[in-house]
Amino acid sequence: MSDRNTQDNAQLMEQILYEVKRVVVGQDRFLERVMVAMLAQGHLLVEGVPGLAKTLTVKTLANVVQGRFKRIQFTPDLVPADLIGTRIFNQKTGEFSTSLGPVFANLLLADEINRAPAKVQSALLEVMQERQVTIAGETHRVPHPFLVMATQNPIETEGTYPLPEAQVDRFMMKVLVDYPTDEEEYVIVERVTGSAVQVQAIATTDQLAQLQRQCSEVYVDPSLIQYAVKLVSATRTPEKHGIADTARLITYGASPRATIGLVEGARALALLRGRSYALPEDMVDLVPDVLRHRIVLSYEGLSEGLGAEDIVARIMKVIPPPAKPLDIEKKVA
């Protein structure tokens, strides 16, 4: 990838982010993670209380890149057909036709995903992994690019279903969204109570697909891949990495999807930051988001009041990132 292309990509993504921020106040880190997931063709699990602009962020981003946006409110009475579509009998023609569901969008927001029963979650599983749905034996591809952003409400637990580990693992990252600062909340109130902001279309879905292809060309040094492998390995066999006391706190560690997510995420973050090569800090920034939902704590760990973030922090303290290669730009050139 030439320096000229890298600069053009960075400028386009900066314009996209600027346009979204005309509507969305704060949430810079969350918005950055949405862009990383989009560039790396991953999916995002978001946890945060209601009213923190999660839906607004994705909807605004869809408008800016001229993509199709759909939102599904997950409820206990939802059935798979409400998600993927179904076959409808036409009495006039005497034939069946296929009515496609709301998953056929570029950006799909699955709101409160843990409120839906297992059969609905498994229907979403095929879409996330295979990017296709099967209706009456017929396969339909979802549009490209395709991003699922699912939200969870951490407050209420009544009437919720825990997400299966297999589905949680399909999410590239789990992001925690926090309350805005007092200054940000002041601006939010001003914008909401003032005249509505009309966002401009900055890019197209074709340009977004081109950015995804260029993201896969970003150079990742072998030492950085080795760092990702060590981090993930330490969640499974801590004793091999000098933190044997952590083993009793973990029931299951992260899968190889976590290693892939770290590498792909570092590539996307590097491209977002205007580089054609990934640096250690790109990966370090993403480690908590990629690992927090993939570590299953033991009863002992839970009884000590620990969270997955505490385990990740211990591992990162023991396994340092590789030194920044001084001749990295020569290697790329």
Percent of residues in helices: 40-55%
User: Element order, helices and strands?
Assistant: HHEHEHEEEHEEEHEHHHEHHEHHH
CATH architecture of the largest domain: 3-Layer(aba) Sandwich
Mean pLDDT: 85
How many DSSP H or I helices? 14
Low-confidence stretches: 326-330
Strand order of the largest sheet: 2-5-8-1-9
Q: What does this protein look like?
A:
The protein has 14 helices and eleven strands. It has 333 residues and is of the alpha/beta class. It has two domains: 196 residues, Rossmann fold, CATH 3.40.50; 105 residues, Magnesium chelatase subunit I, C-Terminal domain (Helicase, Ruva Protein, domain 3). A five-stranded parallel beta sheet has the order 2-5-8-1-9. Helix 1 packs across helix 3, helix 2 crosses helix 10 and helix 10 packs across helix 11. The longest helix has 19 residues. It is globular, with a radius of gyration of 21 Å. The termini are close together. Pfam families: AAA_3, AAA_lid_2. This is AAA family ATPase. InterPro entries: ATPase_AAA-3 (IPR011703), CbbQ/NirQ/NorQ/GpvN (IPR050764), ChlI/MoxR_AAA_lid (IPR041628), P-loop_NTPase (IPR027417), Sigma_54_int (IPR002078). It comes from Hydrogenophaga bisanensis.
List the helices and strands and how they pair.
Blueprint: H1 3-21, H2 28-39, E1 44-47, H3 54-64, E2 69-73, H4 80-84, E3 85-90, E4 95-100, E5 107-111, H5 118-130, E6 132-135, E7 138-141, E8 147-152, H6 165-168, E9 173-176, H7 182-193, H8 205-215, H9 222-236, E10 250-252, H10 256-272, H11 280-291, E11 296-297, H12 299-303, H13 308-318, H14 328-332
Parallel strand pairs: 1-8, 1-9, 2-5, 5-8
Antiparallel strand pairs: 3-4, 6-7, 10-11
Helix pairs in contact: 1-3, 2-10, 9-10, 10-11
